[in-house]
Amino acid sequence: MNNTYWMKGTEVTLSEILDRREHRAQRQQELLQKYGLPLICCTLNIIGPVKHTPVISKAFHREIDEIILCMKSLHVPVIYQEATEQPTGCEGFLVVDGDLLEIKDNLIALEDCHPLGRLFDMDLLRTNGEKVSRSELGVEGRKCLLCSNPVFLCSRSRAHTVEELVQCQNEILWNWFSQVYSSKISQYFSKAMVYEVTTTPKPGLVDRWHTGAHTDMDIHLFMESIDSLGEYYRNCTLAGMLFDQEDLRLLFQQLRQLGVEAEETMLKATGGVNTHKGLIFSGAILCSATGRLYAQTGQLDVNGLSSLCQEMLTDILADFENKEDSSSTAKSHGEQLYQAYGITGIRGEARDGFPLILKEAYPEFLRLQKKQYRIYGNGQKILLSLIAKSQDTNMIIRSDYDTIQQLQTHLNNYLDEHLLEEINEREIIRQLDDYFLEKNISPGGSADLLALVYFLYFAGFQM
């Protein structure tokens, strides 16, 4: 599995484990004597000599959170809580004040129904130190990880090897964590798309004020589209986290199929209007690369992201290059622009590891954010820079190559003469807006890049 960082830990000895168990029992007695109330002692059922890893730590804190939420739902006060993490494992104590059997019944439900429940170990102790058992509620004992037999039978007969049990345990941990993290990244990307469309005003683009150079869409349609694509970005992130081969071009092939399905979903949600085709492409790449990078390193940095994108997309221009000798075979606007002017657009940006985004726009956005300007205002400033510098095929398709070249030259000259933070972005954008509306131009590709900048920020990428 593609999770080396998360599964690394230090092996401990049986003697160390027994010493820690004795210490835990002593701490239980101390808390029972001090508070005179029931005590929940929570650990994880971790098999093998490695008892603590980054993903085990994540699982343990989720266990604590689930217990606290459970107690709140029961209106059972948590009088005291503590948690410790050692190479010998994680352990937590919660002093509670409520009905013992009701609490135990809900803890059993967590152990039996939660995705991590088979690894959860939640002992409820009476004030005299005795455990409240499952049998007191007429509930069967816990089952084996690998089969439906009672765990004590498999343990006593050694029905399964340690290696088999560890593999199953790690799959439970990783499947849970990858699902949780991919959902989080999907939420960040959806949030970025919302921030892009609600950045107002934007020249020639849909925003909160107008529909720009578009007659077939508005902000409400964009919201419908964004809502329809959340599962897609989750699946793209998950594909990156679970991908366990060396050739990242194979990962991109997975994304292509997911993208075809996502485009159908989007068009169904919008009544056939193409609101986010560009972000279906670039979002899939960034989300999957983010998932893989975090799975490998536990960190998010722009250099690592750029490298992964380049590895994934070495063949991305093959469609263009195969048609280079015959313009009559060009099917898409992008292919035609490549043949006529060598413009690679978002494909070239992605193949090169998103240099305009990762090396220029995002660092500049972070610099502006540190000055505590409004995030939308910073987004508008970055959008101006993106319009000036990107190969925005949307603009060229709606106008012509020479016109857009001239416009970008003028805008670049203006940006060279002014510090970005000193620009009155709304004034410049309104001037551009008037021009774009008159010429029916939409910098939709630049808007997509702005959404990617927002995503990097919300996801917490470091330079």
Describe this structure in words.
The chain has 2 domains: 134 residues, 2-Layer Sandwich (Alpha-Beta Plaits), CATH 3.30.70.260; 278 residues, no CATH class. Helix 9 packs parallel to helix 19 and helix 15 packs across helix 17. The protein starts with a helix and ends with a helix. The protein has 463 residues and is of the alpha+beta class. A 4-stranded antiparallel β-sheet has the order 2-3-1-4, with helices on both faces. The mean pLDDT is 92. 62% of the residues lie in helices and 6% in strands.
Overview in brief:
This protein is of the alpha+beta class. The chain has helices at residues 4-7, 14-35, 54-73, 100-113, 151-157, 162-198, 219-242, 249-270, 277-297, 302-312, 318-322, 333-341, 345-351, 355-370, 375-389, 393-398, 401-417, 425-439, 444-459; strands spanning 39-44, 78-86, 89-96, 120-125.
Distance between the termini: 27 Å
Mean pLDDT: 92
Radius of gyration: 28 Å
User: Mind summarizing the main beta sheet?
Assistant: 4 strands, antiparallel
Describe the SSE topology.
Elements: H1 4-7, H2 14-35, E1 39-44, H3 54-73, E2 78-86, E3 89-96, H4 100-113, E4 120-125, H5 151-157, H6 162-198, H7 219-242, H8 249-270, H9 277-297, H10 302-312, H11 318-322, H12 333-341, H13 345-351, H14 355-370, H15 375-389, H16 393-398, H17 401-417, H18 425-439, H19 444-459
Antiparallel strand pairs: 1-3, 1-4, 2-3
Q: What characteristics describe this protein?
A:
2 domains; 463 residues; Alpha-Beta Plaits; elongated; alpha+beta; 4-stranded antiparallel sheet; 6% strand
